[in-house]
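Problem 12. The chain below contains 108 residues. Write out its predicted structure in token notation.
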Amino acid sequence: LITGPTGSGKSTTIASLLQWMNENLVRHIVTIEDPVEYQFTSKRCHFTQRQVGRDTSTFAIGLRSALRQAPDVIFVGEIRDYETALTALQASETGHLVVSTLHSEKVA
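Solution.
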């Protein structure tokens, strides 16, 4: 979980992590974003990128859908509500690497 205020580099940090995976690991990575901030070109990883409002109605629904796609890694663009937080926690409990951001006043 990457936290911090707007403009602190949360999305850039996660994009760097996902790009490192793409260059070094073989994984299926599903992203759920609002909007999609970085377009990834598959190198070693297969990316499935979903946008809230276009491909799914909410982060939580997109996350539940992602679990049916056999992902190794799930990136949730932002945890904004209880349902998304609960679904992300459940996904992590089933062995998926779940990466997300959360707004906070300070970087943590």
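Discussion. The chain is about 35% helix and 25% strand. Students who got a different answer should revisit the alignment rule from Section 12.3.
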